Amino acid sequence: MKKLTEMRLEDFAGLSYPCSCGRVHRVDIQKIRVASGCLGELPEIVKELGGGPVYMLADSYTFKAAAQEAGRLLEGAGIPFHGKLFQTDKPLVPDERTLGEALADLEMEDKLIVAVGSGTLNDTARFLSSRTGVPYMVVCTAPSMDGYASTVCPLILGGQKITKPGVYPQAILADTRILKEAPMPMLTAGFGDIIGKYTALADWRLSQILNGEYYCDECAQLMAHVVEKCAENAAGLKARDEQAVQYVTEALILSGVAMGMVGNSRPASGAEHHFSHFWEVDALRWGQEHPLHGNSVGAAAVVSASLYELAGSRLPEGFPLPDKGRILACLEAAGAAANPKDLGIRWDLFYESVLHAMEIRDRYTILRFLDAQGLLGGCAAELASRFYPGGKE
Ligand SMILES: [Zn+2]
Ligand SMILES: [Zn+2]
Is residue 285 assigned to a domain? Predict the structure, then answer.
């Protein structure tokens, strides 16, 4: 059997892999396709999954980007479908209203839900699918986040961010010709989410060394391998180069796959995600808009890598530091934010987040390491002065 790093993304569908970590990793997704022009394969994939009637979810943007064409393709293949089109002038939010509206149009005879979109539409379809038992697949429209191959639904319920369990999509179809035309902040967000894996993987390794936490070297290597490909093509992303967009899309899908294989989010999420979450929760509390998840994660990866630098020689001997210079250079080349200040994060919120982001989850990261050494307060002051040279302003 091939090693994970030698496999193509599409080979991960349906995988059962006896790993050197002692576990058998499984991927319960039937089909993964990332290619130029692959939207045309939609009818075939729908048939493989048992055919229609299909219930398609889209919004004003994704209708133009892909759903209109998807509808034409289904019609041409004689597959019955109907849709729910969310009219949006503001970004769609996965809240009670969106979930309710999506459910209200689901018919008894529908056999497959097709989400045409990225974050919210995918999360909505996943929630609907998990509660109704109607399988779903996703047609990706933006390489903006790593939740495509995920089994959880981050929702906004009662104004709070709440993550509920869901199911995998049966198929993921990502046409890079469509993805490369996504709004630039969505492209940089996907890239930022991937660059955040540098620090996420460091946190996982650190916890393995210090706490004996379960760690899968093959999955970690797999992630490091795909992150590196994205990093090497950072400048291409800014130019909407299709190959660069393909690398980011594949890495985002693989992040979800790796989390599923390991059984938790370690391969994809560490302290940088806790920062991003902390900032997002604050914005929700004040009813303000917040940056796209991945754009926060990218800037937070610089913060997290800076914390590793400050920890320096206190870390276990020979511990490989996440390369802050490389992270910064990649974000800059891709045109993504590298400083929380540039995302509108206030000085006081930043300072608080260094002290308290670790309380978001019971998970060991560089934040808990520094806290245990009594160094976190000093780090908060040091980083606040580095990232906010003008002070509180
Ligand atoms: Zn393993
Ligand atoms: Zn993420």
Answer: yes
In this predicted structure, what is the pLDDT of residue 393? 65
Check whether residue 61 and residue 191 sit in a common domain: no
Tens of pLDDT, residue by residue over 185-203, are 999 999 999 999 999 999 9
Q: Is residue 259 part of a domain?
A: yes
Considering every ligand atom, which ligand is closest to the CA of 17?
A: 1
Q: How far is the CA of 228 from the centre of ligand 2 (A)?
A: 17
Give the integer Cα–Cα distance in Å for 79 and 316. 59
pLDDT value, residue 148: 87
Q: Give the domain-ending residue among 148, 179, 210.
A: 179
The total of structural domains in the chain comes to 2
Provide the pLDDT for residue 392: 78
The ligand minimizing its distance to the Cα of 150 is 2
Relative to the alpha carbon of 301, which ligand is closest?
2
Residue 274 belongs to what domain range?
A: 184-387
Ligand 1 centroid to residue 218 C-alpha, Å: 6
Q: What is the pLDDT of residues 63-73, one digit of tens each?
A: 999 999 999 99
Q: Give me ligand 2 centre to Cα 308, in Å.
A: 20
Please give the distance of CA 138 from its chain centroid, rounded to a whole number: 14
Give the distance (Å) from ligand 1 centre to CA of residue 246: 25
CA dihedral of 361, 366, 368, 373, whole degrees rounded to 10: 180
Ligand 1 centroid to residue 30 C-alpha, Å: 20
User: Does 370 share its domain with 299?
Assistant: yes
What are the 10-residue block averages of pLDDT along the chain, 393 residues in total? 91 95 95 97 98 96 96 98 91 93 97 94 96 97 90 88 90 97 96 98 98 97 97 96 97 95 94 96 87 95 98 96 97 97 95 96 95 97 95 75
Is 2 within a domain?
Answer: no
Cα of 28 vs centre of ligand 1, distance in Å, is 16
- CA atoms within 13 Å, Cβ hemisphere of 56: 29
What DSSP string describes 184-221? Answer: HHHHHHHHHHHHTHHHHHHHHHHHHHHH-----HHHHH
Q: Do 124 and 266 belong together in one domain?
A: no
Tell me the C-alpha to C-alpha distance, in Å, between residue 76 and each of 41, 72, 73. 12, 6, 5
Please indicate, yes or no, if residue 4 is contained in any of the structural domains: no
